[in-house]
Amino acid sequence: xxxxxxxxxxxxxxxxxxxxxxxxxxxxxxxxxxxxxxxxxxxxxxxxxxxxxxxxxxxxxxxxxxxxxxxxxxxxxxxxxxxxxxxxxxxxxxxxxxxxxxxxxxxxxxxxxxxxxxxxxxxxxxxxxxxxxxxxxxxxxxxxxxxxxxxxxxxxxxxxxxxxxxxxxxxxxxxxxxxxxxxxxxxxxxxxxxxxxxxxxxxxxxxxxxxxxxxxxxxxxxxxxxxxxxxxxxxxxxxxxxxxxxxxxxxxxxxxxxxxxxxxxxxxxxxxxxxxxxxxxxxxxxxxxxxxxxxxxxxxxxxxxxxxxxxxxxxxxxxxxxxxxxxxxxxxxxxxxxxxxxxxxxxxxxxxxxxxxxxxxxxxxxxxxxxxxxxxxxxxxxxxxx
Length: 386
Fold this sequence. Notes:
By secondary structure, the chain is α/β, with parallel strands linked by helices. The chain contains 14 helices and 16 strands.
């Protein structure tokens, strides 16, 4: 079996889109490769875990600087590890720098989740390292064509970029009864995610001036106090329910009880929006924003939901109001979203594409030497659009 090393920033129960994607990839490919996963711990100690069917190492973290965990043990691990393929999840500046310094001989696959948007000083300091890593990579995975086309970083490396959409385990969401939900008046809006600057939850709360009903926010983060203050200031605090972080059963209950889902993200840091796939699996129509990232690849305007301009509370409110008042349209869009999620965004489909890529870049599959262009045997990008 091919030896594969995944290097990520964190791993669940640490919550976030990159962490969820890493978990779904690793759990699905583990039976077919010899897999090790290396991430940062939340504590200054190293922990080993083999309970999921692969070797998970959480490296001791000394501190966090500019959202980057400092894990000095990674360099020594990369020097010792003899994986044939190193699958590195970006942005993760320290991990890529240490990989290059370690002069690892494995084939490098970079999974490019998003550009660095907010931390401008770090972005320019890191750019030369990132360019070197992308040049060294045998293949670059992006979650959508939109990210490849809009990213200034990927522009010089498009020849080796592949579109492999993110996928999740849809099984818990598919049994939710969409017909039963459509039989009651629409009043309940759900949003899920980290309370961070790029999620745009402040605009969703502001949009409540344009529609009646209840808003449930699942998640937590450094903007929670500010969001609570916004709801109080606008006089909608009794209609906004902050659930915090919840377990799987409670999350499924939130999806089951909602009438529609909203992703109000307002910055390019939102590279895909996996929570939209959860909502579509639960047959919820989605109101999202028109970000030039993979967000555009998920929710289809007029088919699986509605798409509005980022940062526009009035447009969000109008879209939500129109769907809450139209149960037949909500049901039709919700069912179309479920079909689209099953067809394009399952973790099985994602894993199969990644395994095909490994077969193309691994030495025994005739992959090219480190630093070369995309191998001719690489599978074509899966098509997302008509």
